């Protein structure tokens, strides 16, 4: 271990880190990236690092950031007017936040990536090139901010052009790029590349070109000092043809520059002993009290109140990746058991939303569906359900199975990605949940029936499962310590490159 890393591990050396993300909880959320961006910088600050968050100035963010003030204006390519940088703090914690205020790009209805009908914004390439340009500018130091990061941490395709824009800059910060889901790459046609007026040298296989298309995500993979994804197993999977989305060769090629670091969860926000969303708080010493939340879940989803029902939950995007179609296909078989109830919350593909609504209408006393996302409802589902469904076809990390473990809501998951890294069926260490391999409704249903059988006939064994899951350390503190070491590697790699170029 290097002297720098030893001192960092002791908390004696702090990094100045600019954390760039297109979403962050509680300001705006569409998926797990928001949870990471809202938690990892906070955990880094608790370890002594000056981590600051930068994201677009969406209307929801502008309303929530505390002590918001304008600190400077940037002249950026593609912006019709100067872009303001606003400074403030997260509403619920002392995390400094910079908002990139370009109203023509970010002040609009819908979510960060799609309009109210669910279609991608037609100018997403322009929007996130501008954001990446702002990130790169702030990363190089803006005098009005009186702060310059030693390290830039970019996330997913929406920030991936920042490393490409910084590639030739003298005295640039070290750059870490995190892939949260390789399936979302920011792909556009050659005409978009030309329209964006990106440097022509970037149009090459060694740059942003990907099968004659512009790939934003390649900017992060090719030009960052270190690249990671969000679980060790997913890091192995994306280097295979099956899960690599065409980039497996590149990820194999960069070798030791790429690894998996497991995400964590916020133990303050997700704590069954203090969670205000729960009717009945509980902890590992009082897991029996969890049953008190089941009645509230049943009330919320208009299901019959029955403490003896086995209640399954699902929270997540309604897309094929998450295996929601497997749940829909399984339900008729599962509902043959009169003691089973199922509650689901999420939004996504219109066809899956419609299928779930139809199932709920035809089984009103057994299935409850909420299309959309509500944070309090999500907490209550974890606190009130007996088990949690996560039959993903692939899952880079997954957070809901970790929330479930924390809440003693026993996860039933497919053995893939971060699910395989966080849930154990007893083959290695104490069992904390149920895993299956084949991505089929039959395999999922068989595993759910196995869980129901254990719950029904051996409550002592079931509570042992609950407690084993609740005992795991899945906090962001553990993950932040791994990122701390990875940042040091990136800084050393940057220093070595500077010496080679000198």
UniProtKB/TrEMBL annotation:
The keyword Transferase applies. Residues 302-458 form the Glycosyl transferase family domain. It is an enzyme of class 2 (transferase). Keywords: Glycogen biosynthesis, Glycosyltransferase, Transferase. It comes from the Bacteria. Pathway: Glycan biosynthesis; glycogen biosynthesis. One of its GO terms (molecular function) is alpha-1,4-glucan glucosyltransferase (ADP-glucose donor) activity. Its EC number is 2.4.1.21. It catalyses: [(1->4)-alpha-D-glucosyl](n) + ADP-alpha-D-glucose = [(1->4)-alpha-D-glucosyl](n+1) + ADP + H(+). Residues 17-253 form the Starch synthase catalytic domain. ADP-alpha-D-glucose binds at residue 29. InterPro entries: Glyco_trans_1, GS/SS, Starch_synth_cat_dom. Pfam families: Glyco_transf_5, Glycos_transf_1. PANTHER family: ALPHA AMYLASE DOMAIN-CONTAINING PROTEIN, GRANULE-BOUND STARCH SYNTHASE 1, CHLOROPLASTIC/AMYLOPLASTIC. Synthesizes alpha-1,4-glucan chains using ADP-glucose. Belongs to the glycosyltransferase 1 family. Bacterial/plant glycogen synthase subfamily. This is Glycogen synthase. It comes from Thiorhodovibrio winogradskyi. The gene is glgA.
